[in-house]
Amino acid sequence: MSPQKQAVAVDVAMADHSPGFLFERAIEAIQYTISDEDRRTFRHFNDVKAMLDGMRSMCLAHQDDSERLQACIQKIASFAHAFAPYFDVVGLFANVHREWISCFWGSIALMIRTGSIYILLLEKTAHLFEIIARGLPQYKLLLPSFKLDFRTVTDGHMELLSHLYADIVQLCLELYCMFSRAQGAKLRHRLFNLRSAAWRPLDSRFTHLQQRLARHKSWIERTLGQSTDNLLHHREYSTFLKSAESVCGQIEFEGERMARRLKRVDKVKAWLSNCCSYRDIYEHKISQRHPDTCAWFLESEKYCRWKNKPFNERTANSIDSLTETWHERILFVQGKPGFGKTFISGAIIDDLRDGVKDSNIGNEPPTTAFFHFNAAHLYCACSNDAIRALAAQLVHAHRHDRNTLDALSLLMRKASPHDKASCDDVFEILQLLLRQHPTFLVIDGVDECTDIAALLTKIPELCEKSDTRAILLSRPHLEIPIKYQKWASDSPHILYLSDGQNEVDIESYITSHLNQLADQGYFGINMDRSLFQDVASRSNGMFLWASLLLKYLGSTSLAPEERRSILEHSNLLQGLEPLYNGIFSTLDKKIGRDKNLAVDVIRWLSLSIRRLCVPGLQVALRFDLKRANGEGVNLTKLTESLTRSTCGLVEIANCNVTFTHSSVKEYLQSSACQSPDFSLLDESAAHGHLAARCLTFLASEIPKKPLQRLQPYIQPAAPLATHSGLSIRTGSSRDSGYRSMSSSSDTDGISSETAPAPAFDANIPFLRYATLCWPIHLTRALSGIRTPNSLPTSPSSPSADSPSHIPWLSPLSNFLANRIAITTWAEASWRYNFSPNLSRLLPLLINLKSEIPPATVDGRDIRWTVQGLRDSSDALNELREKWGARLRENPSLIWQWKDEEGQPGFWPRWDEGRGCVIFEEVDEDEEM
Fold this sequence. Notes:
Distance between the termini: 104 Å
Number of domains: 4
Number of helices: 39
Largest sheet: 5 strands, parallel
């Protein structure tokens, strides 16, 4: 587009112009606004029928969303049929040029065709036109009365009629701009005198359009009908149009306008339900990255070729070109575990953000959005987590862009503040944002995605509808779908990372940090620094090995002479497995509180059913240590000590406590781990310990009273279902009574679709986990338990009746003996929308009872526990059958329950006035 065309700005006042002035200007605006490709393929339709036939033919090419698209076209058709007689009215005052009609219907068809790949937004758009249709005058009914009185024919009438035409064309062009990327569209070719300082989002402009439409309808019905005050009505309408333009042209206080726009953007982010865990990973790795590393990758030929190819507006607006070339815009980067791919991804993000701004690869500087998959982080596990995060980043990055704000305002128009975007909605928003703006996507840890197939299906869908470039980092075993292959090309494009490429980076990283440790006295005096070079050569291209070794050497668990010995015999720790053996050998030598902390945090991070929030983990660890040492633990100091106590195996970010690398858990679950206290080869024992922690917490740490004030029972307006449709997602259908569902992430249960945590547990962050997950831990412990009969007998083995074999038995017994604790747990379960169920635990305990000699301490305890569990399970089943629907509505009713004879029965009753439990009393008459 030439600079002369880009400089065009049309300001129209209510001045002396030809009657068809706005019609001609509207057609000119169409030509200036749409892209060269769309101008070449622009279709002219002579009437409504031709336009609608063309749109219905388009539906046949969109088989996936054909029904939704047809519904949109039906709404557009209602507008078209209502508006078509408008041209007959115009014909009363002037000759209607064929181009006025054909360009009008053509602009509507272009808008629909451009938006047809964004069905959600097109549905919102069709609703706007449906509203306009309802607000139009009934031209067809009024037309006969117009023809009866030609005394009203004036150029002024023609001019006022033309404003509606220009309004609709302008709306179509604005929607077209929202659906596409065109530099001409950025000019906002206005048909009215609306200054840029007074620009408003689409929903605000549409409200103004509705006001203009209402005045137009009033003028048509009064002035062009049989009214005797034609001149007066003409002046009123003309004055309104002038005043409306004047108001819209006023410069509003910039701060107030920006505040409202940013508030709108925040509302959209909340609607997208994004979480910041992926950003914590990026910021954490950036803080650890050694200066001047990864330069070799940023200069590699494949990466530079992928990065430096210009973004082209013509290609961006051509679906055919995008579909043909999407393979060329996706680059896979693959390297072995521990190579340092996450560090490389951080360098890529910084390079694309900073290095591309000054390069000549497009008219608009590209935006960079990123995501790090990490199964140990909340909201970083499945493909939908990535889609939400990428969409939220782009919403924030383009929060000042008018096209983006128009799309967001259209989406959120009259939306409920409690609505949450579905996965399909978020994906469509991401597609549109990528279409509007040139974008780089950086996705790290693809192999840790729980639904890789879904992710690798969505990436091409994004690149087929936009000129987006994506770079995906993963381990070499990633199976790339055959769709990524293209005949007569080298697709898929894969950049393999080999050991020698990062050798210089690792050497610089190790020697620099070892010198720092030596300067700080970690190796004592007279340290031979020539060893540092030899240590650096042992990495075998594994940045993870270098990082773990440095954290190990910096641990307070080692004495200076031990650190020197490690350096002198670094060959013994060459490779991840020998290094892990050395670290856990050191952890095994710890005693007391430090070892308990290391063991417990590793168990929680490895085997938790759902990832604990930092406050919840703090409570769990504090409680464990409090029991072991008989004293409380400062939570802040506890968090700070985790990395030190685990020799660097555990990291702490803003939102999560995680392993340094996923290989830590892989090592613990393998036969290579020889530490009995840390090994997870037999996970059932560790699950037993975690079940014991949860049960003890429920029995002694939560309030022995209702979690909220008692509420009387209110009959629901409609019958409720007799079972809970919700369940906690686990990996096994055997997990207690909680019905499992296939899940892409252990965190899905607390994802965007879940309501915010209720106020009752605000000060008890571990309550949700302990309430919902202790039956699952206990089920997994029982499913793989080694009974005393199966244990090897040796002089060093504990006696068969030692409770250490069954760590959960005593806590479970104490919990079942405490009716108040059971009642509080049941109430909490219903408040979390889960119906408490112990039915699947009972047969597992009975089976265990049959294998433990009854004469032992464990044998006697488990028999009592089985009876207590049976009583509790029967009481829960009875409660669920009779009061299940009511308890889901009002969980506090469990404290008010009576049996059929009016007796409290199993469940204690709470006296709200006295603030205590009411125990069953014997009636004096019955006693006599």
